[in-house]
Design goal:
four-stranded antiparallel sheet, alpha+beta, single chain, 179 residues, binds iron/sulfur cluster, 15% strand
Length: 179
């Protein structure tokens, strides 16, 4: 395995400075997360990188079990205008994609990014994996793969709470799976 410092220098190049390593086995996958997608989220069936366009939870578990470790990126952000949320998300996800690409090209063939929120690379999502406009770039969010982000990042000592309104600062998380 490569030295940890190799990766860290790439993260810093993309100004990704707040991150922690996590053993892949410590990433919590839970069926309740999928139920929250199915019952309570407007994106269910509307987004090409969200359920039901992502695999069932047992396959998600299998996917994570094939990795040795991951990196959790933390983003603390206050956005005054809720309408600009997807703009900021897009900007961060594009930066994360460039970083993932560089890590992949440096020899980490299994590098796989989980967006910090649902994919919003297009103004209007096609809602279909087959018809996705940017198949090479779109990635699922961690919750779309059944990750209990709350339990997982708390293991690392990162903050996360259910937010009650848009006046609160967000703590958002993206994951990079590596081996
Ligand atoms: S790239 Fe576009 S079509 Fe594909 S999942 Fe993202 S928003 Fe949807």
């Amino acid at each position: 395995m490569r030295k940890k410092t190799d990766l860290e220098s790439i993260f810093h190049k993309y100004n990704l400075t707040d991150f922690k390593r996590i053993d892949a086995k410590d990433i919590v996958i839970a069926q309740w997360v999928r139920f929250k997608c199915m019952f309570g989220c407007d994106s269910y069936g509307q987004k090409a990188s969200c359920p039901p366009n992502t695999p069932p939870i047992n396959e998600c578990r299998e996917f994570f079990s094939e990795y040795e470790y991951g990196v959790v990126y933390h983003f603390e952000k206050y956005i005054e205008n809720p309408e600009s949320r997807s703009e900021w998300t897009n900007e961060m996800n594009k930066k994360l994609l460039l970083c993932e690409q560089e890590i992949f090209l440096s020899g980490y063939q299994k590098a796989f990014l989980l967006f910090l929120d649902e994919c919003c690379l297009c103004r209007k999502c096609t809602g279909s994996r087959i018809l996705c406009m940017h198949k090479k770039l779109s990635r699922p969010g961690a919750d779309a793969l059944g990750v209990d982000v709350y339990s997982t990042v708390r293991k690392l000592g990162y903050p996360i709470e259910v937010l009650k309104d848009y006046n609160q600062t967000m703590n958002r998380y993206s994951f990079l799976l590596i081996e």
